[in-house]
Write a structure and sequence with these properties.
seven-stranded antiparallel beta sheet; two-stranded antiparallel sheet; mainly beta
Length: about 130
């Protein structure tokens, strides 16, 4: 696969409780090499109607065993930023909806964005992960 340009996006994420329509179980979380990019929710972008979503796997979370209703830092990396031009307009302070299927499982506030590469080289992953610790 030929590397493409995309973005790394740091977010402050609030995980929705089951009572509020979210997941039924906690998130595994973490940011060690074995769990990076394993959690692959979709995201609703600013200005998009509820239900519209696009892919951006999670590079990592700031902690493991993420309880429903808790707050955590996460870094996401859009897979198709060249096909979804709205990713280019995401900026600090924007709100993103985290989806699993049609269910909203989290609300993220963008803390920062920066250019990145997909697939992401390990040295780039390590540099970005520092924000989570």
């Amino acid at each position: 696969m030929e590397p493409t340009r995309t973005y790394a996006i740091g977010i402050e994420l609030r995980v929705v409780t089951t009572a509020d329509g979210g997941r039924n179980t906690p998130l595994l979380g973490g940011n060690t090499p074995g769990v990076r990019f394993q959690y692959r929710p979709n995201w609703g972008l600013p200005g998009w109607p509820d239900g519209d979503q696009t892919a951006a796997p999670v590079l990592g979370f700031s902690k493991t065993g993420i309880e429903l209703g808790s707050h955590v830092r996460a870094i996401i990396v859009p897979l198709f930023s060249e096909n979804v031009p709205e990713w280019h307009n995401v900026t600090e302070g924007d709100e993103l909806r985290m989806y699993e299927g049609s269910r909203i499982c989290g609300h993220g506030t963008v803390a920062w964005t920066q250019p990145a590469t997909w697939p992401m080289p390990v040295d780039e992953q390590e540099r970005l992960i520092e924000w989570l610790t």
